[in-house]
Amino acid sequence: MSSSYLPATTDSIAHALEATEAISILYLEARLASLLMESKEYSEALSVLYIRLDHGSEKAS
Asked: pLDDT per position in the chain (61 positions), as tens?
């Protein structure tokens, strides 16, 4: 493998790791909200979801 492929490969791996981390965080937040809803902690569940929406809008800007 030529060394000219190395930066692109490194960038691809870094991007894949970031995407995996983001998906894991989304999953955990959704699971937490679900557990809170099951235990009738509705305001806490909405808080978790609101924080996600709030942070998501910051990234989009």
From this structure: 556 667 788 889 999 999 999 999 999 999 999 999 999 999 999 998 888 777 765 554 4
How far apart CA 44 and CA 29 sit, in angstroms, is 12
Q: Helices in the chain by DSSP H: which ranges?
A: 6-38, 42-60
How much is the pTM? 0.67
Give Cα separations from 19 to 14, 15, 16, 46 (angstroms): 9, 6, 5, 24
* DSSP-assigned letter for residue 40: T
From CA 39, how far away is CA 28, in angstroms rounded? 17
CB of 45 closer than 8 Å to CB of 37: yes
